[in-house]
Amino acid sequence: MNHLLRELAPISDKGWEMIDDEARDRLTPGLAVRKLTDFAGPKGWTYSATNLGRTEPTTAGPVADVAAIQRRVLPLIELRADFTVSRAELRDGDRGALDVDFDSLDNAAQRMAVAENTAVFHGFASAGMAGICESCSHDTITLDDHFDQYPSHVAKAVEVLLEAGIAGPYGLALGSDGYTGVVETTEHGGYPVFEHLRHILSGPIVWAPGVRGAIVVSLRGGDFLFESGQDLSIGYDSHDSDKVSLYIEESFSFHVATPEAAVALNGN
After folding, report:
1. Closest by CA position to 259, among listed 140, 132, 161
2. CB count, 10 Å around CB of 240?
3. Which of 223, 214, 200, 210 is nearest to 264 (CA)?
4. Helices 13-27 and 103-122, interaxial angle, to 10°?
5. In the chain, which residues have pLDDT < 50?
6. What pLDDT, on a 0 to 100 scale, did the predictor assign at position 234?
7. b/e per residue, 148-173, with b = 16+ CB within 10 A?
8. Residues 88-116: pLDDT tens digits?
9. Any alpha helices (H) in the chain, and if so which ranges?
10. For residue 215, what is the enclosing H or E element?
11. Which residue in 164, 136, 162, 266 sits closest to 213, CA to CA?
12. Which of 157, 219, 241, 267 has its Cα between 20 and 30 A from that of 203?
């Protein structure tokens, strides 16, 4: 038995299969971080810190004439979103129902995707995690109110990266409103903005719920490091006669190795 305690839940094997499949389907589209950064792991629930390969001095050694330094590490954070599943719905699923009500699970999955994206792209100060946008060493580019102007802004961001010696291909993380606007907009002459952006980037345009504005990042590798302890998993909390209380959980660290490898784009 591990810490997720799934064996204690009044859920059949088929029920767990339905829950895991639903969570995977709902989580995967919104996990923008994993499409644009280097993913390492998962290394397990007990993995607690990422080695930064650096040290810092201590005030003194433990005894006279013995120097001491301390290794620097980046602690992993844990994220958790609770949800419930109706026991009656689970029984219907065991009978073969294809429309089991997983609304609470779907909402939890959405919150987890937004939380992961927000922590990585914009930082999580109370946990000591610096995000890509706040770490970026380049000036922020201001986005126009009109989506047909996005190609010129993204082209400018790519030019900034090239001038800094940061090779491509490049990826673009777009918040929900920006992504919808880009997908729906055409330039003069009817050419889709989405396709123009892909041509400029030579890389993906990623829907990133939780992102404010947009971010252009290099995909050459080694610049943005996401280290997973426990990857996204579902655990059991409790149950009564009507519902089962479950949760989605993960642990991870994030480190910006090259602040020059991204450009943030924000609205007015």
Report:
1. 132
2. 9
3. 214
4. 40
5. none
6. 98
7. bebbebbbebbebbeeeebebebbbb
8. 999 999 999 999 999 999 999 999 999 99
9. 13-27, 33-36, 87-95, 103-122, 132-135, 150-163, 176-184, 193-201
10. strand 214-218
11. 266
12. 267
Three-class DSSP category at 264: strand
- The two tokens of residue 185 are 């907009």
Contacts of residue 65, defined as CB under 8 A and 6 or more positions apart, other chains included, come to none
At 89, give phi and psi (nearest 5°): -65, -40
The per-residue pLDDT for range 135-159, each reduced to its tens digit, is 999 999 999 888 999 999 999 999 9
Distance between CA 202 and CA 199 in Å, rounded?
5
Collapse the DSSP code of 154 into the 3-class scheme (helix H, G, I; strand E, B; otherwise coil) and give the result.
helix
What does the buried/exposed string (b/e) look like for 63-78 if buried means 16 or more CB atoms within 10 Å of the residue's CB?
A: eeeeeeeeeeebebbe
Q: How far apart are CA 172 and CA 60, in angstroms?
A: 47
Q: Please state whether the predicted TM-score (pTM) of the whole model is above 0.90.
A: yes
CB 158 within 8 A of CB 199: no
